[in-house]
Amino acid sequence: xxxxxxxxxxxxxxxxxxxxxxxxxxxxxxxxxxxxxxxxxxxxxxxxxxxxxxxxxxxxxxxxxxxxxxxxxxxxxxxxxxxxxxxxxxxxxxxxxxxxxxxxxxxxxxxxxxxxxxxxxxxxxxxxxxxxxxxxxxxxxxxxxxxxxxxxxxxxxxxxxxxxxxxxxxxxxxxxxxxxxxxxxxxxxxxxxxxxxxxxx
Length: 201
Known about the structure:
Layout: H1 2-22, E1 25-33, E2 38-40, E3 44-47, E4 57-60, E5 63-66, E6 70-85, E7 88-102, E8 108-114, E9 117-121, E10 131-134, E11 137-138, E12 141-146, E13 152-159, E14 162-170, E15 176-183, E16 186-192
Parallel strand pairs: 1-8
Antiparallel strand pairs: 1-2, 1-5, 3-6, 4-5, 6-7, 7-9, 9-10, 10-11, 12-13, 13-14, 14-15, 15-16
């Protein structure tokens, strides 16, 4: 009886291993930057919320092999604006988050549109610089951003890169999906207008 139980446990483990090894997807993502009007190949990370990422995915040439299906947050840092600093010149860094659903059945290929208007920092540890840029210029006045299809992506008012009052975000169909409310340049409230599990701004 003990041998039968061990055999069944081994068979279940074998089937689980085989089924999980089949649930893999190659992820290949490029980024459309409307500021440069070009498609870019940029380095990005995927985060599933699990601690040991080596067991979840690894890089293969210009793609990522994802071993476990689920929701992943793509984390990307890309240059915007220029600065002259104490230790040299460089670009401010915009950080962008985008949620993708990997089903483990088919490969995932996409070209993600980067926002023209985004918050940037120097990327230095403990640096408090954090302002909005519209491409390579500080956001000033009433600033609009559009998707490639011409639909409004975001709108809001800025003073020298600082958001004032309300910033609105829209999906690709033009539906309002989120608002950020600011007081004295500080975010006071974030309102989400969708019941979706996740939203990409």
